[in-house]
Design brief:
alpha/beta; two-stranded antiparallel sheet; 11 helices; globular
Length: about 350
């Protein structure tokens, strides 16, 4: 395997010892109030040898919660809980950024602290069901955010980013992928607005650009990343103009000098991936889900990616970096435990030393 994977790199203001990072993974193990616990701290600290940990999606406000017992980062209690996590990761010589994720319409009132109807760019009901404490339920028709509420949500992202830094995070990643709120603004099937946030490509990328601008202004561009997933149909997203929208988005984001662009779930569209690589001036982080480490390392060797992320491999192998370096076998992830709510399939995967 190429040595390129093990070369250090500085990503914005964050120095990394190598190029193998941990992708964000929803884990549903915070308190009902969205506060991370000691169990969360143990989980992330176990994986501190990854070049960078990108946390699970973390809601920037109460409306942003989609799933049960996911963490927030908008109250003092959230900050204190995340401080336990960041302290544990830093003590283990790791680096960690908190992913800011507003679920938008992919939500249910039963999962939020205020029990309110989900919000979205437009009142288009998503296809599918949502897991709640009382079982699977149909996701309701969301309420359309007013123009003023969109601007207020931008400010919620700004405040959440400041809270993440107050909690000791090395930075934040803005979640603009996988069918959540920013992605919902990109897609024409979920964005049917007629104001300045709908219609043209320029208008549909506006919210994401405003969020990135606000966050970078608040905590520094060198501590701000953003994740996208061009053409990913997850969560009932239908995109027909990815080759127009995403280059426009990346060209508009580039002058902000963000620390990194994280591309995942791009549907195998390597033509678009190469286009975005050419347009992006800073660190490009790539997630090729379902591929082996050698394939991902080749992206670094070829210059297509500067850093690569791994998801379920990192989940099942807290010491993945050591295993890859030494050629040791990998643990197999257990999907039945992914959202189980306790240590099983979370902190109990064996390390090589055990």
């Amino acid at each position: 395997m190429s040595n390129a994977l093990w070369n250090p790199i500085v990503v914005g203001e964050i120095p990394l010892p190598h190029r193998l990072a941990m992708a964000p993974l929803t884990r549903n193990r915070s308190t009902p109030e969205g506060v991370p616990t000691g169990l969360n701290a143990e989980y992330y600290a176990q994986r501190a040898s990854h070049a960078l940990i990108i946390t699970e999606g973390t809601q920037p406000n109460a409306d942003g919660q989609g799933y049960p017992v996911t963490p927030g980062i908008y109250t003092d209690e959230h900050i204190a809980g995340w401080r336990k996590v960041t302290d544990a990761v830093h003590k283990a010589d790791g680096r960690i950024v908190i992913q800011l994720m507003h679920a938008g319409r992919v939500a249910h009132p039963d999962n939020t602290p205020h029990g309110r109807q989900p919000v979205a760019p437009s009142p288009v009901q998503p296809v599918g069901t949502m897991f709640t404490a009382s079982g699977l339920q149909e996701m309701p028709v969301p309420r359309e955010l007013s123009t003023e509420e969109v601007a207020a949500t931008v400010e919620d992202f700004r405040r959440a980013a400041a809270a993440a830094i107050a909690a000791g995070a090395d930075g934040v990643e803005i979640h603009g992928a996988n069918g959540y709120l920013l992605h919902q603004f990109f897609a024409t099937n979920t964005n049917q607005r007629t104001d300045r946030y709908g219609g043209s490509v320029e208008n549909r990328i506006r919210f994401a650009v405003e969020v990135a601008t606000a966050v970078a202004d608040e905590i520094g561009a060198g501590r701000t990343g953003i994740r996208i997933s061009p053409g990913n149909p997850f969560n009932d997203i239908a995109e027909s103009d990815t080759h127009e929208l995403y280059p426009a988005l990346v060209r508009t984001l580039a002058p902000l000098d963000l620390a990194y662009l994280h591309i995942g779930n791009h549907g195998g569209d390597d033509e678009l991936l190469h286009t975005l690589r050419k347009l992006w001036p800073n660190t490009l982080v790539l997630n090729r889900a379902g591929t082996d480490i050698a394939t991902r390392a080749k992206d670094v060797e070829d210059g297509l990616a500067d850093v690569v992320t791994v998801g379920t491999m990192a989940l099942a192998n807290p010491d993945l970096v050591e295993r890859v370096r030494t050629g040791a076998p990998l643990n197999t992830p257990d999907p039945a435990t992914f959202y189980g709510g306790d240590a099983a399939g979370y902190t109990d995967y064996p390390a090589l030393s055990e």
